[in-house]
User: What shape does this take?
Amino acid sequence: MRLIELELTAFGAIAGKKLDLSQRPGALHLVYGPNEAGKSTTLRAILALLYGVDHHSPDAKLFGAEALKLRARLCDGNGVEHTVVRRKGRNNTLRDENNAPLDEAVLSRLLGGLPQAVFTNVFGLDHERLRAGGEELRRGQGNLGESLFQAGVGAPGIHDALVGLRTQADALWKPRGKAPLNQDIEKYKEARKDVRVQATAADQVRAQQDELERVKAQLHALQERRNGLLAEQSRLQRVLRVLPALAKQRALRDQLGRLGAVARLDDDAADRRRRAQSALASAEEQAAQLERGLQRNEQRRVALVIPESLAALGADTVRALRNQLGMHVKAAEDLPRRQADLRRRTLDAEQVLRDLGDPVPLAEVERLRVDRAAQARITKLTSEHSGLREKLDAAERELSSAADALEQVQSELRAFPQRAGQQRPSSSELTFPATARVDELVRRWSALEQGEQAAQRALGELDARDERLQIALGTLERQGAPPSEQDLRAARAERDGAWSQLRALLSAGTAVPVDRLQVIEQAQQRSDELADRLRREAARVAEHARLLAERDAVERERARLAEQRAAHSAERSALDRDWSASWSPLEIEPGSPAQMSALLHKLSGLLERGRREQNAAAERRTQALQALQAWQDQWAEAMAKLRLPGGASVEEALAVQDALRGLFEKVSGIGDLRARIEGIERDAKAFEARVAELGAQHLPELASLSLTSAAETFVARYEKAQSDQAQADQLDADIARDREALEQAQQRAQSARAQLAELMRAAGTVELAELERLERESEQAREIEARVHEVERELLELGEGESVDALLAESADATPDAVRARLQALEDDLAVLAEEHTSAAHEIGSLESGLSRLERAANAADAASDAEELLSRIKENALGYARARLAAELLQREIRRYRDRNKGPLLERAGELFARLTLGRYPRLEVAYEDKPEPVLQCVDTSGRGVAVETLSDGTRDQLYLALRLASLTLYCERNEPIPLILDDVLIHFDAERTRAAFTALGELAAVTQILFFTHHAHHVALAREAVPQDRLVEHHLLQAMPRQLSLLG
Amino acid sequence: MKLVHAADIHLDSPLRGLVRYEGAPVERIRGATRRALENLVALCEQEQAAVLLIAGDLFDGDWRDYSTGLFFVAQMARLRSAGTRVVMLRGNHDAESQIARSLRLPDNVRELATRKAESVLFEDLGVVVHGRGFQQRKVTEDIAEQYPSRLSGLFNIGLLHTSLNGRPGHEPYAPTTLDVLRGKGYDYWALGHVHAREVVCEDPYVVFPGNLQGRHARELGEKGATVITVENGRVRELKHEVLDTVRWALCEVDVSAAADGDEAVALAKAALGRSAAQAGGRLLAARVVLRGNTAAQRELAGDPERYAAELRAAALDVAEGEVWLEKIAFETQGALDAATLSVRDDAIGQLAGSLVGLLDDREALLELPKVLDDLKAKLPREAFEGPDGVRFDDADFMRGLVAEVRELLLSRLLGGERA
Assistant: This one.
């Protein structure tokens, strides 16, 4: 297969460039590109074309993945051409010319099914791989098979791969050693042993189970025996317990038999008899007592006598009388004190009247009273007075402050000179010019000054320019005045004039004088001379004309500036006038515009505020004065009510008001006292009349007593009557109650007698004494019976439920001593049994726990698990070992096979190439066998001596590797469809001579298969030209890249 | 009435094929079969099962630790307290087992005779169980044929350890046919021996419940027992209850999308995460198989040990160490096709050609392991046994190994390729 044309339509940084490889089939293609010229891009493009664009390729960045495109024409072994296009993407990246998807098999066929890895290894070579190949030859110490195989595969690393595989195998297992697999095999054996050791044998467990059964049976027998002994022990203990009770029971039964037949009375018969006897006695006693009390109360009731009218009198009446008596006694004591008080107050009031200086009798004092409205008005006026005064004072202070402000304006103005013959205007007449007007004038001042300064500067520059001009003109003219066009025109006119005169003479047939001809000649000469000079001195003429023109311009400028200055001067006088006029109302000579502008802004505000405040203060003062006058009128009116003159002071008015208030308080106290005294006298008369009335109605004997005594006696008698009446009522009630109680006591006595009779009838007797004896006998019999019962209940308890008869039978012949002896023997037997029982139970527990432990134990199972895990790891590592070991073995085998099959032709060709590449230093290669397990490659030098590969210099070893590679390739291309060889600066470590030699060899190899040699060394191009005949070399120069663009010329 | 049917408990049989590595959850797999048996007993208690049927292979034939038997007896004693009766028979493993022979069973457990078929009648339940256990390991006759006829008015159960008409991977013991079983007129055939669950027939029910706990990478998925609900003498419902504590999974991962080895590991890790999620909190013992034509082939085939180690490290991340990778198989392909390469006449072509040729050269394949003789002499006998044994003397095994070696060599020698 050959590449005919490669087009980088859009790839990397390259767009639309072609590499045309169609010329001279069989020639060496040398692709030269300096750095950045796209050499690497082109190399990548070849790989991308053949095997597709890598997903992470940088070559899609500039134009984008969509745009990426490579196109190529390829020629197969039969000379058929194929055009293919390569795009970037996941599918169908190979297309035909019409962009229809193309099967990758098309390319694969062309490449002889060569995978990319093989292609890059076998058909691509750069100096790094060359150096690595040489380096591996050294490490392999020239092992012939490895060297040849390595050169055949193209990939360095055969030696390393072999070593790596062997190391990998050794790391897992060694025939003798402690590698992981060796260790695991040992561990596995131990684990298997552990399974056997840890396993519990069935026999062992069965023996334990049998033993357990036996001990359980033994325990059962012990239990039975112990139960028998315990039963006997229990019986004997019972006998021992019941013996005393049985004896007691026998004694009681004997006692009962001795008592004989006795009637059994009711249990409570004796009680009932005693209760009836007691009730009878108590009832009779009570009746006697009640009869005595009744007799006594009836006598006391008859003795009580009560006055009826007094007893019937209402309690309210007597309570009122008692109150009146108390008040009467107290008022009689108060009366003299109140009368003295009345006299004292009257004297005080009369004294106040006299102090007022206006003698009015006390009886007419009401005339002096001032009504409440008048009082309020006076109080109000009093408080208003001071406020009105304060307002007046404030207005006057403000007036004075305004005057100060106006004075300040005046004083500022006085700093300026007064206009001649004029008076300064007063404050009220002051008029400032309008601010806007002043600002306008200031602006004009400023503009004028700037204009004047600019004109001054322009004039200065103009003078300087004029001076330079004059110097230049002077210099020019001192060198001789240059001719002017006017001069030439004048000379020509003169010449033409002379000629026309001559022409006229000639046409008139007049003879021409010689001097005329001379004139013409001279005129002719002058004009020619001028024309010549004009041409010769053209530069000076032009300079002269320019200087003259510039001088005119300077003069024009000077005139313009003079006009401007006149205008400035006129503006200045107009401004002076306007300025002065605008300040005339103030009658001052104004200062500078800046000064005046500042003053104006300050003073015009001050003046205006001063005037405004002065007016306002004057207004407020007038208002205050009016208010004070109105107050004075109201005050005079109010003073008349106080019988004071209108001009009285506020203090006087307050004093009179206080005196009047005191007077009327006293007058009011006098009235109250008089009314009180009259009331006391009225009450005394009413009380006396009431006492007399009551006395007449109920106790006429009181009439002889004093008023107070009569009233007190009446009250005492009334209270006595009330008390007697209450006692009589109580006695009546007691008598009635006692009579009823007497009757009840008599009934109770009757009932008790009936009960006694009934009891005697039941005992079959009529004698009370007989009844008591019968009761005693009955009770005795019952008591014995109860004790028998008690003993029998005790027997039942002691006998643990056995009947009394059974107990009697059980204990028939028992004696306590015999029973005790037997019990002691039993005790001893039981102790022995208990020990045996405990030991059996303990044995059972230990056997059972042992079995339970076995039941939970999983040691053997865990060991089996361990063994399984180890076995799995052994298998895995054995496989890993086998893989690495077999891989090394098979590879080694193939290396030898390849060596044996190819060493003849390969060594011959490689030897020949190596001799040329080393310029004859090593004429051939040979195989050495001595002292080595494997045959070794060595170089033979000119003296016929063998040189070991590892002793060669780096460069020479590179050349040996290149020779081996090229020899393998030649062999390959003879046996297979040739594939283009891509070499990337592979010779950069070669010196010039050997480079030339290498190019010669490559030039020859190019006849066998297409070779693309990429380099960025210009001297390699030169060396190639020397080494390869012109018709066998095609040069391609990649141009230095322009920014973002790249040219590629074929 | 509820009946529970289990089989092939293989108590204390170790889980096989798990390579111990740093961080592997060793303790979690210990006693897995015991935990599964405990789960079975708990299931009987919870369902208040009247009868538990155990259709053989309670123990591993060569297992000699009597503790295992004691553990079983203790579990049966629990069922005795729960009022569950147990009928069991011996399978081929039990016939060999020293433990099975000398076990003392509680009185709620009834082991069926091995000489001839017998019937156990539970009058109170209206249930009769017919069956016969294995007397020795190899029973080749059809013992079902000799089972008694149906007893009318009762729920008839046939308990049988059989391979039926043959099941792959199982010894053909006590063979019989569905017709023979149908002919007996029973209501339910409780079978054992086959480790995969299978409802062979629904009229009458013929059921393999499968084993209780998967023990290696060929016993995948949920494992447990079958709960039979009987009403009015008929099967009303059949329910399979999951009882295993370690779950075996085959995790096949297509890594064709992976651009390199790390991406392939990431894909496998994600697949493991999904499998772990399905295990419902159980420890997952997984075999990972990577497949597909992938750009990662060069890295994976070039250093399978490294990527196996990376996958195991990744598995520790998945589900907080609840995953144990049993084995990692690389069955991927790459762009380098040895057959295509071998056409070429050069060094690579020769190497590829030899490796391809070796696959078909039985003699050469069997000669090759001579270089491994040293190792073979040291490996324990068990390493060569079983489906995962390192059978260096087996041509098929060696063919697989050589294929791996081929990928390894091509990947290492032709570095730098891309897909």
User: Anything to note?
Assistant: The two ends of chain B are 64 Å apart (CA to CA). The CA atoms of residues 385 and 391 of chain B lie 8 Å apart. Chain B touches chain A through 79 residues (CB under 8 Å).
